[in-house]
Design goal:
Elements (H helix, E strand, L loop, with lengths): L3 H8 L6 H6 L3 E6 L11 E5 L2 E7 L5 E5 L13 E2 L4 E2 L6 E2 L5 E3 L17 E2 L1 E4 L2 E5 L22 E8 L3 H9 L21 H4 L2 E6 L3 E9 L3 E10 L3 E6 L15 E9 L5 E9 L8 H10 L24 H6 L8 H10 L17 H18 L18 E6 L4 H5 L8
Antiparallel strand pairs: 1-11, 2-3, 3-4, 4-9, 5-6, 6-7, 7-8, 10-11, 12-18, 13-14, 14-15, 15-16, 15-19, 16-17, 17-18
Bound molecules: FE2/S2 (inorganic) cluster and fe (ii) ion (FE2).
């Protein structure tokens, strides 16, 4: 449970808000590389942390991210011409390069110095892992670019996608790091529902440790002869990583499929909507994903039949996420098709910003409680000039997540130690 003021502090992300300022201290995915595939190609609208922006890939192949409105008379830069290393406003022809400098002002006298005095807002970008990352914070505090393991894989080893979620980032993120709902809400084979009476198989024991980048936690399910260990990382400000290797129900390695690491990055569009960047990559540098596996991963991560051309789920609030009440009665917990769609139904249904003054957190909510503590700590550190977690990529570059079944006579931490180390 949070006070109304604390709930506001954690969820508002516009310019000048505490959480908005915190996100602005990190590199964030702003769009997928595939959205601006060509140099001098069409510009693309981007909304990030409540700011309207325009992305375009300039003649050098570098992606620019500038304000959505021309500084002359505020015409929309979306209709601009992307030409010779700059975006030209089509209203009166003022042109801006990727640094925000005005490089041409045909409507002013040729000897006028006015163009040296006018700039458009522009943010630095960095391209990696099929994503265009942007830094929206104070220039003097710009950190080195991100260095997550997925960003070092080659394209044949990974699948990256994004999907729109119609609610505040924090409830989406809290859903993603909650280890317990998976065996209940995502249960696709409810049988006679006796699984709900089996506490030990339903609920993992959580072991959690704070780190320099955020925290790591493991959900361990104890069986007679073995332990099933799922180890996760949460990396500031909103990156979550997990694995699907040995134990995961439903994602078990089949035939020639390569075991994988996957995760999400939750990026606030504004206070009420969120982009989720989804990634999955091969566990093994020597084994790229098979074509079929990449296709299945794309579907599971939300492409294909699930998403429209704007990355919005076709099963959404307007059609009750396609819930099939008969399937819900006899087959699956939710009656809703698709893991991500199930999450969206519950998270979006909480309201645009969940009212955390009315919740009651229990024993399985430890990761969520730690997440909130760490966000509050980070806000305090930022406001007092302290060090922020995960600003330095060295703190997290070598971590990876774990999904292993290990004999119960070996301490699970010893048995999985090597699996926690990045291999790319
Ligand atoms: S409004 Fe853009 S050049 Fe005039
Ligand atoms: Fe989920």
């Amino acid at each position: 449970m949070l006070s109304p003021a604390d709930n506001e502090r954690l969820t508002r992300v516009g310019p000048g808000t505490p959480m908005g300022n915190l996100f602005r201290r990190y590199w964030l995915p702003a769009l997928l590389a595939e959205e601006v595939p060509d140099a001098d190609g069409p510009p693309k609208r981007v909304r990030l942390l409540g700011e309207d922006l325009i992305a375009f890939r300039d003649t050098d192949g570098v992606v620019a991210l500038v304000g959505a409105f021309c500084p002359h008379r505020r015409a929309p830069m979306f209709f601009g011409r992307n030409e010779e290393c700059g975006l030209r406003c089509v209203y009166h022809g003022w042109k801006f390069d990727r640094t925000g400098a005005c490089t041409d002002m045909p409507s002013e006298p040729p000897d006028s110095l006015f163009k040296t005095k006018v700039t458009i807002d522009a943010y630095p970008t960095w391209e990696g892992g099929d994503m265009i990352w942007a830094y929206l914070g104070p220039p003097e505090l710009q950190p080195p670019p991100p260095d997550h393991e997925v960003l070092r894989t080659s394209p044949g080893h990974r699948v990256v996608s994004k999907s729109f979620e119609d609610c505040n980032f924090l409830q989406a993120l809290e859903g993603g790091i909650d280890p317990t709902h998976a065996s209940i809400m995502h249960n696709m084979n409810i049988g006679d529902r006796t699984f709900l009476n089996n506490y030990d198989s339903l609920v993992a024991h959580i072991h959690l440790e704070k780190t320099d980048y955020g925290f790591t936690y493991a959900g361990v399910r104890h069986r007679s002869s073995h332990n099933w260990v799922r180890g996760y990382h949460w990396i500031m400000p909103s990156f979550h990583m997990r694995a699907a290797v040995e134990g995961s129900f439903g994602f078990r390695e089949k035939g020639d499929e390569v075991p994988t690491i996957d995760g999400h990055i939750w990026i606030p569009i504004d206070d009420h909507t969120t982009w989720i960047y989804n990634f999955m990559y091969s566990h093994d540098p020597a084994r790229p994903l098979s074509r079929e596996q990449a296709h299945n991963a794309e579907t599971r991560l939300g492409r294909g039949d699930y998403l429209d051309a704007n990355y919005i789920s076709k099963l959404n609030r307007s059609n009750d996420y396609g819930i099939d009440r008969k399937r819900q009665k006899y087959e699956t917990m939710t009656g809703i098709e698709g893991i991500n769609t199930q999450d969206f139904a519950l998270q979006e249904g909480m309201g645009a910003i969940v009212d955390r003054t009315k919740e009651h957190l229990g024993t399985t909510d430890r990761a969520i409680i730690t997440l909130r503590q760490m966000l509050f700590e980070s806000l305090d550190a930022m406001e007092n000039g302290g060090t922020l977690r995960a600003i330095d990529p060295q703190t997290y570059r070598n971590v990876r997540s774990v999904d292993r079944i290990v004999p119960s006579d070996i301490e699970w931490r010893d048995a999985t130690k090597d699996d926690y180390v990045a291999k790319f």
